Amino acid sequence: MTETIVEMRHITKRFPGIIANDDINLSIGKGEIFALLGENGAGKSTLMSMLFGLYEPDEGEFLVRGQPVRIDSPNQAVALDIGMVHQHFQLVSNFTVTENIIMGVETVKRRLGIFPAVDLKNSENKVAALSEQYGLEVDPRAVIDDLQISERQRVEILKMLYRNAEILIFDEPTAVLTPQEIQFLLQIIRNLRDNGKTVILITHKLDEIKQVADRCAILNRGRLIAVRDVRTTSTQEMARLMVGHDIAFTLAKKPAQFGEEILRVDKLTVENEEKYEALRQVSFSVHRGEIYALAGVAGNGQVELADAICGLLQAKSGRVYFRQTDITQESVRTRNLRGLSYIPEDRQSVGLILDFSLQDNLVMKRYYQPGFRKGLWINREHWQSYAKRLSQAYDIRSANGIQTIVRSMSGGNQQKVIIAREIDQDSDLQIYVQPTRGLDIGAITSIREKLIQERDHGKAILLISLELDEIMACADTIGVLYHGSLQTEAPAGQLDLETVGAYMMGAKHE
Amino acid sequence: MNTMIIDGLSYALPLLIIACGGIFSERSGVTNLALEGFLGFGAFTGGLFVALTSSWFANGSTVPMYLAFLFAMLGGGVYALLFALLCIKFRANQVIAGVVINILSVALTGFLTSQINSSVFGEASNKFQLGVSPRWTIPGVSQIPVLGAIFTKFYPFEILIVVLVIFLNYLLYKTRFGMHLRAAGDNPHAVDTAGISVVRVRFAAVVIAGMLAGLGGMCYAYSISTNFSPSIYFGAGYLAIAAMIFGNWKLMPTLAACLIFGLARSGAYQLVGYLKLSSNFTNLAMAIPYALTLLLLIFFSKSNRAPRALGEIYDKAKR
Q: Do A74 and B174 touch (CB under 8 A)?
């Protein structure tokens, strides 16, 4: 290894009830791509947030270029040439790229010799030169609102470079990107290294680490498990270290046995809230024992499709059939009673009432049914026993049992609450939108297994996901949505990852 | 026609400067319903200054008027500090704080005016007498048909406002401060990440709003009534908010909205006179700008885009 640029000595950080980082010792070399690998809650982000000055460690110290430093604010970090691209971009939406980049470090020129004004023109040239140097392909004059997510991310990278950052931290940078965009980003990261920058990559995606990183540190429950040279370590080895035990990479899955047609969508067109046709003339059908997976980049009509099938949005034209019955005009409750379950994308605002208890969230779809009420009154005893049974069956963990307020539960357990409630309806049609988003590998595997189990019980499953891995792992049939229309549809075996990716970008047409 | 333009401008320009205050506050992310209270308090401060110092100046001197504008801005700014403290420092709900500030302003200035009149001057009155503002006409250009009216019988404060608005345009769009202010109204977290204090930017923005509204209030006190009295609270602050919204929180379109309001009002007066209607109809005519507000709101509210972080209480910890 060449000279060390960042060294961590005995870094420990405690939050109430949890040790986020426990005595971490690491050194990162100048000019390398260093990956931090771990599941959600392993402490990767906390560790990097401390290096960036968002938190201060309870114990231990950081050394930058051999000097002990106290980093108590992001400004301090920037002064030490450390930059960070967060998961949520910090951009002003109605400003241009350049205005965003220079904010806080503007150069000023004098108008008429007196009036100080921000020197945009020079800054634009400087931004353009940086963009050129690192192959970022960003227009300095574009307004943020008009840019795609991947372009906004590159603006964040430019922001760091403009401030002469030498150490660049990326927090889960590929979570929001398509396969093609991911490749582009990884190339940029290589360019950064080749220009002498040090890159720290926080991720839980093994294949990306394998592609770009030089070394990787593996964290589990706040502890540093190992530091490995990526070239000489297999992905299986890394995964085992990350989870703490062996995990199966492919899901065990029997061949599908298609039964009768449960859902048929016929030339469905749906307008979103802005009166824009988010979904255009989409037709497909889902059968018993089939997992029909819809791939697509976020915002290509997936949410509108799911909402229209469930009755949350009115169709503009076209029909939705459930077991050959036209349900297009039916209310949400009528559809539910026919046998339709929905695991929505936004679990916190659509799927749950966060300030209600676990018990109340579990009975949300049944409270009015016989057994759940005594005349006009709530049947408390039955609610309790029902909630207890479901919590046990679906392994929902909470601090205060069924009376726990859902807001205080972890993301994985919140998702389990919705899945328990919806699957327990015993519905013929189950719609899952992004069911594993933000969950760690353990929870992801268990939810995917559940999905396949339901399929094997003869349910029809519609899976909408932005994660291509998930689509490839679960699907029997794959459809791809782009700009609100179905680009292609084929049995899962006939499409590979790259082809689906190309359809998702609209690069291919039937 | 000439009268309509002359009166329209003298009504529209103070409205514009009040609306500019609203723009500064709201573009920084602070919902500002308190303009009415700011302008009243500013006019009160200016009026108080004139009343207290009336013996220092020669009769008919215009110096007290110019100083009154200065004091009105100071008074409005200081009063706005209270609003800023409530909303930014103590994170009160901005709508409620704004309404409270308005009600408090009416009560406080009314009370203080009567008290000061009785204790200092020994007379029972709820007014401060101001001098009469001069009105200027530029010879030559004022003879041009129609457009000449712009240069006829205008108040000195109209020039002041035009110069000030040009300066504000520069401040908001060209300077670092203006950039930070506009950014704070869209994504305060981005401002924070750039190492700039959101709290400080918003405080400054609200104080500027108070100063501008205070100046606008003083202008009305000189042009409409030549005294400071509770009748200063005739709704200009709310009309300014409407103008700002039609103007999409931008200076030039807001100028257009203010001109429409001003001309509608003076035009309505002319109409009442022209049709020889009784004076009762004057009251009805005065309602025209407000009716127009309602009508325009229906058409404009859809295409408008408010600052994204407007009304959002900034919390550093939330990301």
A: no
**Which chain B residue has the Cα nearest residue A91?**
B190
Chain A hits for B194, Cβ within 8 Å: 90, 103-105
Question: Is the pLDDT assigned to residue A229 strictly greater than 70?
Answer: yes
Q: Which two tokens stand for residue A375?
A: 């005349």
Return the structure tokens found at A11: 């870094």
Taking CA atoms, what residue in B is nearest to A120? B174
C-alpha to C-alpha distances, B137 to B1, B150, B294, nearest whole angstrom: 17, 9, 35
Integer Cα distance of B239 and B241 in angstroms:
5
Residue from B235, B174, B295 nearest B11 by CA? B235
Would strands A377-378 and A223-229 be described as parallel, antiparallel, or unpaired?
Answer: unpaired
Q: What are the chain B neighbours of A92 within 8 Å (beta carbons)?
A: 182-183, 186-187, 190-191
Percent of chain B topping pLDDT 90: 60
pLDDT at residue A38 in the model? 82
Confidence at B298, pLDDT banded by 50, 70, 90: confident
* Domain locations in chain B as residue ranges: 2-124+135-300
pLDDT digit string, tens, across residues A277-315: 889 999 999 999 999 999 987 778 898 999 999 999 999
Interface residue of B168, B172, B176 to substitute, partner A, most A CBs within 10 Å: B176
Closest CA–CA distance from residue A54 to any residue of chain B (Å)? 10
**Is the entire prediction scored with pTM above 0.95?**
no
Using pLDDT thresholds of 50, 70 and 90, give the confidence band for residue A508: low
Contacts of B186 in chain A (CB under 8 A): 92-95
The reported pLDDT for the residue numbered B316 is: 66
Mutate to test the interface with A, among B179, B189, B303, B310 (most CBs of A within 10 A): B179
| Domain annotation for chain A: domains and CATH numbers | 4-243 (3.40.50.300), 261-353+425-504 (3.40.50.300)
Percentage above 70 pLDDT, chain A: 96
Look at the alpha carbons of B273, B278, B283, B289 in this order and tell me if their dihedral is positive or negative.
negative
